[in-house]
Amino acid sequence: MNPEILAALEALLFASDAPLELGRIVEILDLPVEDARAAIDALRAACEAAGRGLAVVEVAGGVRLVTRPELAPVLLQLQRLRLKSRLSRAAVETLAIIAYRQPISRPEIEQLRGVSADAVVTSLLERRLIRVVGRKAGPGRPILYGTTREFLEHFGLRDLGDLPPFEIPVQPAEAEPAAVEAVEGPSASRS
Amino acid sequence: MTAETGEATATPLTVRLEGFEGPLDLLLHLARTNEIDLAQLPVRQITDRYLAYLESTDFRDLDDAGAFLVMAATLVYLKSKLLLPKPEAEADELDEEGEALRLELLARLRAYARVKEIGEWLRAQEAAWGTRFGRTWSELPMPDYLPIESVSLWDLTEAYRGFLARLGRGEPSRDVEPEPPSLLARMAEILGVLDHSWYVMFSALLGATPPRPEVVVTLLAVLELVRLQRARAQQRELFADIVIERALGRQPAEVTAPVEEDEGGPTREP
To answer: Which of residues 19-48 of A touch B (CB under 8 A)?
Structure first.
């Protein structure tokens, strides 16, 4: 791997305040995608091999230069920082629902959690972990929410595919039985 | 739970109930601590436990109390069905409606149990990621082009609210105000600015202490341009100034008409 490319990539990642997408790296360094990817891998390996304090990680659809986890105590002594604020249980549960079922309306969230989600949704919007993605067709046209890139960044996820699989049973009232009937008549014929 | 001390019961119980995220959470907890088989969801048993728990609690938040009480009503309804005398022998069987209700409740409980697990997973992930630090603010000079991810209506309204709040702190409102510019004129002005520059700050579109109608019209103009995909808007943080930038792929056809019409500037009426 060309050391100049590695140096340029390192500088890009160092100066970026957000995950840098592969596409942008390709564009800026004027490289074929495979070469850009190889450069990222090479830089990651180089950081690891040299025992550097920084590591190249993939998060929120991009590449980012972050400190190694074991150095957190050192960093916390800098200005006596506190750990990054953590979300409440209500917040993570609501986020979990939105992440899997997006786009989803507030009543649907409340149905799943069993309590009002008004305050939580507002605070998640304020923290930009979720956003309004549209309105649902139907009575009241409720607002639909989805997760943001900040959500992925907050949890250090590459994309939504990083989430563990989640099987929420389909709501009983929804189209399912009707659809079956439309195809092949009453299901009684099976037995 | 009553086995605990006599005097100190009231307060600790309140604290404990507030630790629950809602009736589903409480039900799950009851099922687990009493080793109730969720798949069976024995209505009598769980209803009794649930009601006992509610009785030992005083709610501070009416909304929350409502959610807990709705669940209590459902459970009591189910239980009442069991208590009604039945023609046939099976005393512990619910009728069709009751069974459907029970199954629905069961499905909700299962789904919520999974939500809780995922929530825990997310928290673990958050904690692990929280030990890693990256740059949060770029030292690079302001870019010509700001990539836009998401400026939601929320961001715009919040920025607008912040703007008005700052306005309020300034000098008192004037009595006589000039006629606000028309929406189309404002849109044209913004597009005109964007013809020469990649971006413009929302505050730069207004004077030092702009009259309120002008702020409103300007915000509407920005929203309209964003809707028509003639411009994009972004905000780096809450209450920060909105950056309005040129849309990437400009489709000249649709909106040029009002633009040209108003391009003449302030002298719209002779």
So the answer is: none
